[in-house]
Amino acid sequence: DPSLAVLMAEALAAQADFYNDIRAGDCVGAGFTPDVRPHGSYRLVSIEAVRLEGEKKKLEAYRFSEDGKREDWYDPDGQSLKGRFLRSPLKFTRISSRFGTRVHPILRRARHHDGVDYVAPVGTPVQASGDGEVRFAGRRGGYGLHVELRHGRDYVTSYSHLSRIANGVRRGAQVLQGDVIGYV
Fold first, then answer.
1. Longest dimension (CA), the chain
2. Is the separation of the CB atoms in 102 and 111 below 8 Å?
3. How far is CA 107 from CA 100, 103, 104, 110, 146, in A?
4. Which end of the chain has the smaller Cβ count within 10 Å, N or C?
5. Distance between the two ends of the chain, CA-based, in angstroms?
6. Sign of the alpha-carbon dihedral angle for 60, 131, 69, 164
């Protein structure tokens, strides 16, 4: 079920990038709660556990909610699997440009590039890489529609060339890791 695969990828998003890290021969599995229909088909209700065994990593994740409100994923020892930042803020097709020197697409000369550019279909949701506060949301020159998030005192992440900004994303708003902040 494709929806099960998506939920598995989201459960381990801070630990493994399902779009780039999974290799032939890796094994993934999940325990989930289905809503079984009278004629034998089912609808996925929730995913409870995920396991990834690969050549380089072995991860297990279990869904748990301490306060009965916000659920999170934990390893078998009870440690949160939520990393400070997601490895990728969106489901992308490919990376078109990385950090470092590159030929600028408009100026056609070598320039330093301080970001990672992802290629994804228009309308693909962009998630907040980590918990933070919206520092800027709007149009910003060559960045087009742009969102900046401040994560504590030390980090700022920025998301540019968006087709639209998600509802409620405005200066001063608080976002949690994984919240949709805009769309490609």
1. 64
2. yes
3. 16, 8, 5, 9, 21
4. N
5. 25
6. negative
pLDDT at 25: 85
Positive or negative torsion for Cα 78, 82, 87, 92: positive
- Please count the CA atoms within 13 angstroms of the CA of 84 that sit on its side-chain side: 7
Q: How many helices (H) and strands (E) does the chain have?
A: 1, 15
For residues 82 and 15, is the Cβ–Cβ distance under 8 A? no
The reported pTM is: 0.67
Contact status, residue 127 vs residue 90, Cβ threshold 8 Å? yes
Location of structure tokens 């994740």: 61
CB 171 within 8 A of CB 165: no
d(CA 137, CA 143): 11
